[in-house]
Amino acid sequence: MCNLYSMTRNQDAIRRLFKVTKDSAGNLPSLPGIFPDGVAPVVRGADGGRELLTMRWGFEPPPAGYQLVTNVRHLSSTFWQPWLKPEYRCLVPATSFSEYAPEPNPATGKKDIVWFALDNSRPLFAFAGIWRPWTGRRGTKAKPVEGDHLLFSFLTTNPNEIVKPIHRKAMPVILREDDWDTWLNADKKEALALQRPWPDDELLIVKRGPEKADTAPEATPQLVK
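The chain above was modelled as a monomer; its predicted structure follows.
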């Protein structure tokens, strides 16, 4: 389960790559470590174009649950059905994602955080996401935010051979740029066919260690391959 990712490219890079026609995100900072309940950029369809805005990461759990639901796997569940319609699908910009190593590092006695990206320059890419409106209290106990919220989560699938040694159960669904319109606009059957592992030869381990953030030298944003 991916519960930590990064988005370190600047706002203009997101606007250009995702062909944003409406920017409602305010001033976006670099986000080298995005955690559940954190606020992060999301791109959704709007008025025939694409809107960039911010949402909180994690759906509220079902009645029997207790944790925010950040990853979506079993799409046949009635819990997800209302939010799989085109109007509730979104793209989640990212530059890398992480999983904890399965075994502790002998040197530290703790599990390393392993970061994955498309290449060492951390180009922008997109997770397949869904979003929903929700009203209630979110944020920390020290700084609760009461009211209306927009929440997002993203799909996971079987891990590829790069992720599997670190996390044998799942990896996030990464979308090719050519598939972004399909995810946002196609009927459910065609869109959900995109829930598949990313090719092994197009993903790298770019960092491993104790840091809960991924930073890399700024590079020219690249299109998704």
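Residues 5-100+122-203 form a domain with the hypothetical protein yedk fold fold (CATH 3.90.1680.10).
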